[in-house]
Amino acid sequence: MEVHDSSGTLLSSVLDRPMRSDLLKAIVARPPAALSRPEGFVDAAVLLPVWEGQLLFTVRSAHLPHHAAQISFPGGRFDDGESAEQAALREAWEEVGLNPEHVEILGHLNPTLSPFGFRVFPLLGRITQEPQLTPNPAEVDTLLWVPIEELLAAPAYAEERTPPPGNRLPNGLGGEFSEIEGQLRRKVWHYPWRGYDIWGVTGNIVHDFLERIRAVRL
């Protein structure tokens, strides 16, 4: 079966074979963009776990203080002295029971900012054997295995949003941020998938990931 993205481009050159480690490494061969940490922000990391052409997402518990019931990647803030890789692997273990010994970290995607005061480092990881996961009910309601080919073909769209009241984002940011009449705006990507809306920080990370796939397509 031929698979096309939302613009009609044939994706078989990427999707007619499993996502091998070398292809995944090519996706993150381009260095991530530099992003200074704004004053008052703390560092966090998320893991993009790939298993047999699928990305693992979590649906966050409804009672969490930030991003409740939203779709995200496993991750969270650094503990003292941790690297991004260590934080991402630890959080994936604590949230979904993904054994760090079964994850090959392949590289970094572009960091991004959360309006709740986090500088987020996304890391791409290949799961090296069939995962046996146990989500932590205090943090995760549901696990979603999303085929990458379906994300590439999703009817994605972006919107300009004003960060919520009380956000910690400073003015003068570039990239996905702009200012209109002195008001900070942010481009936020949405990826509809089987009744779910993958958006916000997660949607922007997904967009970076998929654009990198398209850039290395043979």
UniProtKB/TrEMBL annotation:
Keywords: Hydrolase, Magnesium, Manganese, Metal-binding
The protein's required cofactors: Mg(2+); Mn(2+)
Assigned EC number: 3.6.1.55
Molecular function terms from GO: 8-oxo-7,8-dihydrodeoxyguanosine triphosphate pyrophosphatase activity; coenzyme A diphosphatase activity; metal ion binding
Signal peptide: none
Superkingdom in the source lineage: Bacteria
Record flagged with keyword Hydrolase: yes
Keyword Transmembrane: no
Domain Nudix hydrolase: 40-169
Enzyme class: hydrolase
Entry similarity comment: Belongs to the Nudix hydrolase family.
Identification of the protein by name: 8-oxo-dGTP diphosphatase
Gene (UniProt): mutT
